[in-house]
Amino acid sequence: MTPLTFIAVALAGGLGAAARLFVDGMLRSRLRGTLVLGTTVINVTGSLLLGLLTGLALVHLVSSDWLLVLGGGLLGGYTTFSTASVEIVRLLQQRRYRPALTVGLGMLVASVAAAGLGLWFGLSL
């Protein structure tokens, strides 16, 4: 990795984190009472975009450097497995076992499905 690529990944990661904060805040302000929805939307959309980007890279429409910057940097900063984990643990601590299981498995299944859909679409271009 070149120093320029390293800097680009770092800057893209910061932009991704800022985008996550913006999207989460926007969703929370419009849809009160649901803490986990913002994290779910962020992780599913990030998975879809990463799948698409990976598909485009596999058919050589996106270079490996751009895959690293946009996939590892931007989308790595945007998606948030750690926040999802903390939100699920909080539900478990509140003894809300069914919502914790639903959120955990639902987010996993939806994110993997979205990544698969994005990959399929990227490969078909």
UniProtKB/TrEMBL annotation:
Instruction: List, alphabetically, the GO terms of the cellular component aspect.
Output: plasma membrane
The residues the record assigns to binding Na(+) are G76, T79
List the membrane topology term(s). Multi-pass membrane protein
- Keywords for this protein: Cell membrane, Ion channel, Ion transport, Membrane, Metal-binding, Sodium, Transmembrane, Transmembrane helix, Transport
Transmembrane spans: 6-23, 35-60, 66-89, 101-123
Query: Which GO annotations describe the biological process of this protein?
Result: cellular detoxification of fluoride
A single Gene Ontology molecular function, please?
metal ion binding
Kindly report the protein's main subcellular placement as a broad class.
membrane
Relay the activity regulation note. Na(+) is not transported, but it plays an essential structural role and its presence is essential for fluoride channel function.
Q: Where in the cell is it found?
A: Cell membrane
Reaction(s) catalysed by this chain, per the record, are: fluoride(in) = fluoride(out)
Q: Outline what the protein does.
A: Fluoride-specific ion channel. Important for reducing fluoride concentration in the cell, thus reducing its toxicity.
Its recorded name reads Fluoride-specific ion channel FluC
Top-level taxonomy: Bacteria, Bacillati, Actinomycetota, Actinomycetes, Micrococcales
